[in-house]
């Protein structure tokens, strides 16, 4: 592993129910993905979470596959974008 961090932004949205945070963070931990920042809120019945994670130690495709499995099981939408792409898409 090089000294350069490779970060991604993960967003999770869906109808709120117990276990969403646990399911997502457990899968990330299994892959040694470090969560650098996390924010989650519930707006009425809707769950939203955004995380900045360090994916330097793992292939992003592996992370995406794990997140896809969690999304299917938890019935939520999970999107992972490389930090650079996220910044580019949301610049003013």
How many domains is the backbone divided into?
1
**How many beta strands in the DSSP annotation?**
4
Low-confidence stretches: none
The main pleated sheet reads as: 4 strands, antiparallel
CATH class: Alpha Beta
pLDDT averaged residue by residue: 91
Model description:
The protein has helices spanning 20-30, 60-74, 83-89; strands at residues 7-15, 34-43, 46-54, 77-82. It has 92 residues and is of the alpha+beta class. The chain has a single domain, classed as Alpha-Beta Plaits.
Detail the topology: elements first, then pairings.
Layout (H helix, E strand, L loop, with lengths): L6 E9 L4 H11 L3 E10 L2 E9 L5 H15 L2 E6 H7 L3
Antiparallel strand pairs: 1-3, 1-4, 2-3
How would you sum up this structure in a few lines?
With 92 residues, this protein is of the alpha+beta class. Helices cover 36% and strands 37% of the residues. It has one domain (7-89): ACT domain (Alpha-Beta Plaits, 2-Layer Sandwich), CATH 3.30.70.
Name the descriptors:
92 residues, Alpha-Beta Plaits, alpha+beta
């Amino acid at each position: 592993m090089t000294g350069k961090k490779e970060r991604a932004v993960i967003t999770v949205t869906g109808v709120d129910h117990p276990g969403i945070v646990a399911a997502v963070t457990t899968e990330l931990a299994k892959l040694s993905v470090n969560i650098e920042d996390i924010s989650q809120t519930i707006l009425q019945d809707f769950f939203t979470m955004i995380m900045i994670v360090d994916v330097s130690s793992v292939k992003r495709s592996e992370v995406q596959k794990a997140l896809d499995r969690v999304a299917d099981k938890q019935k939520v939408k999970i999107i992972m974008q490389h930090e650079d792409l996220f910044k580019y898409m949301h610049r003013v």
